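Issue 218. Parser rejects a valid record. Input:
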Amino acid sequence: MIGVQELRAGIIFEENGSLLQVLSYEHIKVGRGSANIKVKVKNLRSGSTTEKSFINTAKVNDVSVLKRDNQYLYKDEDVAYFMNPQTFEQISVPLNVIEGEQFLKEGETYSISFLGDEALSVTLPQKLFWK
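Output the parser choked on:
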């Protein structure tokens, strides 16, 4: 469990069975009342974004996520295929997990976040360069 005041952009936590990634964080303190933490989160399984508000002393379940670099191979109608360059093991990632899947380039390496064996997200570079 981690306190909500420790949430920052990129942190992944679990709430009511949903895996949520923090997109933005705001600490609000008004007058004599207690402080509120307002976060914008993305549900990693459904892709929806919502805003949540917590009191300053609330806690959420933290999740340990493993990030690995994998080489993009190809995609079909609803799945993209990647390969671990060290073990040559191939993994499939549903396209609904990948934001900007149309920008994937064959042979390029991308960072994929995993919870156990489940792929949660694929990180594309901030700037895309085309040859």
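Fixed in the parser; the record now loads. The mean pLDDT is 87.
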